[in-house]
Automatic annotation (TrEMBL):
GO cellular component terms, semicolon-separated: cytosol
Record localization: Cytoplasm
Family per record: Belongs to the methylthiotransferase family. RimO subfamily.
Function of the protein: Catalyzes the methylthiolation of an aspartic acid residue of ribosomal protein uS12.
Reactions listed under catalytic activity: L-aspartate(89)-[ribosomal protein uS12]-hydrogen + (sulfur carrier)-SH + AH2 + 2 S-adenosyl-L-methionine = 3-methylsulfanyl-L-aspartate(89)-[ribosomal protein uS12]-hydrogen + (sulfur carrier)-H + 5'-deoxyadenosine + L-methionine + A + S-adenosyl-L-homocysteine + 2 H(+)
Protein name: Ribosomal protein uS12 methylthiotransferase RimO
Lineage per the UniProt record: Bacteria, Pseudomonadati, Pseudomonadota, Alphaproteobacteria, Hyphomicrobiales
Keywords: 4Fe-4S, Cytoplasm, Iron, Iron-sulfur, Metal-binding, S-adenosyl-L-methionine, Transferase
CDD domains: Radical_SAM
Needed co-factor(s): [4Fe-4S] cluster
Domain TRAM: from-to ranges: 381-447
Entry EC number(s): 2.8.4.4
Membrane keyword on record: no
Cofactor: binding comment: Binds 2 [4Fe-4S] clusters. One cluster is coordinated with 3 cysteines and an exchangeable S-adenosyl-L-methionine.
């Protein structure tokens, strides 16, 4: 069950409970709303009981996410009764109000003004906001040592299984100076790793015609290479998510080779069969993609590649699936996530023939994960003996858990230390890999 975001409650200022669901992009939206509320003097309530109003930031990407969002709204209604709904699922206003007629307001994704106005109406802001209490980097839901950095909203692609462009609109990039000012504030606030996110990171700036904006007295183009170059000067790890293999991604390799950004690319390939990719309306040239990966690895031998795939897409035959498994064996990706296709309401793929039965999807899911388990075990075994930098996420009596350059928080594997010594979360530790299993590595710190 989702829990309201807890924060130290104080004073008799109006209290807002907050439930944040969904992906990292929704999390960033939650952080922005919380930052603004805090700047206005609101207190974030640690529980439903103490809140004057509860905001539920929902996810509407898949039908299962919508069901989870409805559950969370129902829980907030039952526990508190004064509820404002926002986020991706908010575009289905009628469905939410039919289920919960007592909801105070419903707003869509990244409608920051609308959701804050609804909060003002439900629990008026105090007269004297304590602006100084708000850190320059804003309030964050991640640990202090890493932070998500959203560089654009929306998407100009039209993948047939996806309703994100309907929910969040077309690509809308932030000027480079805005992104860099936020990144600077995050680093000043203690972030040692910046996780760059968007719907399509490679497309950054296209809508702005790559127009430059001034940062530290010089123009920086709203273009991924220039942005990464500038981000790489801040002294934090820079990790790129949701990158599509457009030709200009090659320009990022020298930045990786120089150590300015991490040798890590999260590329959602989704499938390898040409006919499935065509039905998904994705770029369909997986042979060329394998060649591209080979070229990238020549330029940056330590490149970590992460991807996600969908199994059971309408029309996916056993042959298509075999193509995907062969491609995975060949590509030897470092990290892989897999989803069973969901027939999302409003997605064009819903109308396609050849819907795959659930038991076949489940069976293909298990087979894909087994193939990738073997790939992962072999790839990680090849890491033993290497010395890498590790960022520490957690320390307890069993040791320390961290991540290397190849591992993003929440979705990838871990680097584990049996003896944490004096390590603390957020420390950067130089360590040698001593052992590997299917998904994780064990390491020992290098003596200073
Ligand atoms: S690239 Fe495709 S899957 Fe990703 S958000 Fe855009 S339309 Fe959706």
């Amino acid at each position: 069950m989702p829990k309201p975001v807890a924060e130290r409650a104080a004073s008799n200022a109006p209290k807002v409970g907050f439930v944040s669901l969904g992906c990292a992009k929704a999390l960033v939206d939650s952080e922005r709303i919380l930052t603004r509320l805090r700047a206005e003097g609101y207190v974030i309530s640690p529980d439903y009981d103490g809140a004057d109003v509860v905001v539920v930031n929902t996810c509407g990407f898949l039908d299962s996410a919508k069901a989870e969002s409805l559950d969370a709204i129902g829980e907030a209604m039952a526990e508190n009764g004064r509820v404002i709904v926002t986020g991706c699922f908010g575009v289905e206003d009628r469905r939410i109000r039919d289920s919960f007629p007592g909801v105070l307001a419903v707003t869509g994704p990244h409608q920051y003004d609308a959701v804050v106005n609804a909060i003002h109406a439900a629990a008026p802001a105090p007269h004297a906001p304590f602006l100084d209490l708000v850190p320059r980097a804003g309030l964050r839901l991640t640990p202090p040592h890493y932070a998500y950095l959203k560089i654009s909203e929306g998407c100009h692609n039209r993948c047939s299984f996806c309703i994100i462009p309907q929910l969040r609109g077309d690509l809308a990039s932030r000027p480079a100076a805005d992104v860099l000012a936020e990144a600077e504030a995050l680093v000043e606030g203690g972030a040692k790793e910046l996780l760059v996110i968007s719907q399509d990171t490679s497309a950054y700036g296209l809508d702005l015609k790559y127009t430059a904006s001034d940062w530290r007295g010089s123009p920086v183009k709203a273009r991924l290479t220039e942005l990464c170059d500038a981000l790489g000067s801040l002294g934090a790890w820079v990790r790129l998510h949701y990158v599509y293999p457009y030709p200009h991604v090659d320009e990022l390799l020298p930045l990786m080779a120089e150590g300015k950004i991490l040798p890590y690319l999260d590329i959602p390939f989704q499938h390898a069969s040409l006919s499935v990719l065509k039905a998904m309306r994705r770029p369909a040239n997986q042979e060329k993609t394998l060649e591209t990966i080979r070229r990238w690895r020549e330029a940056v031998p330590d490149l970590g590649l992460r991807s996600t795939f969908i199994v059971g897409f309408p029309g996916e035959t056993e042959e298509d699936f075999a193509v995907l498994l062969d491609w995975l064996r060949e590509a030897k990706l470092t990290r892989v996530g897999c989803f069973k296709y969901e027939n999302v309401e409003g997605a064009p793929s819903r109308a396609l023939d050849g819907q795959v039965p659930e038991d076949v999807k489940a069976e293909r899911f298990a087979r894909l994960m087994e193939v990738q388990r073997e790939v992962s075990a072999a790839v990680l075994a090849g890491q033993v003996g290497k010395t890498i930098d590790v960022i520490i996420d957690e320390v307890d009596e069993d040791g320390a858990t961290g991540r290397g350059p190849w591992d993003a928080p929440e979705i990838d594997g871990s680097v584990l230390f049996e003896d944490a010594g004096d390590m603390e979360p957020g420390d950067m530790v130089r360590a040698t890999i001593i052992e590997a299993d299917d998904y994780d590595l064990w390491a020992e710190p290098v003596a200073e």
